[in-house]
Design brief:
Layout lengths: L1 E7 L7 H17 L8 E5 L21 E7 L2 H9 L1 H14 L9 E6 L5
Antiparallel strand pairs: 1-3, 1-4, 2-3
Helix pairs in contact: 2-3
Length: about 120
């Protein structure tokens, strides 16, 4: 499966609750475009508060993002075809405009890759 992962920084002007509410509304828009964009799966993950997170027993950097979003597609080709269609471009423009209300795009990270399912 082809996958898009976004590590999201919220706009500084928003509280955590405002950010979550805006992203929830945005998710409903994503659902309306899921067929046009050929999205197979969509998830959001919010980090646990540092004082409530179990120990990882790893010496890694702290997660400094406000959330993570993931989108799955059947293949890289399906992802590209959906985005290159007129309806796909229109859907992406609407979603990006909406994201700009709550996501600090300049400080967020998006990456694309092939998922290898192990278990």
């Amino acid at each position: 499966m082809f996958k898009v992962i976004m590590l999201v920084k919220k706009k500084d002007t928003l509280t955590k609750d405002e950010f979550i509410a805006l992203w929830q509304a945005h998710s409903q828009k994503v659902i309306t475009f899921k067929d046009v964009l050929r999205i197979n799966r969509y998830t959001k993950t919010f980090p646990l508060p540092a004082d409530n997170a179990p120990a990882t027993q790893r010496e890694t950097q702290a997660f400094t993002f406000d959330a993570m979003g993931e989108l799955w597609y059947e293949s890289k080709e399906a992802f590209i075809q959906a985005r290159n269609s007129p309806a796909g471009r229109q859907a992406l423009a609407a979603l990006k405009k909406d994201e700009q209300k709550f996501v600090d795009l300049a400080h967020s990270v998006m990456w694309l890759g092939e998922e290898e399912r192990i278990v």
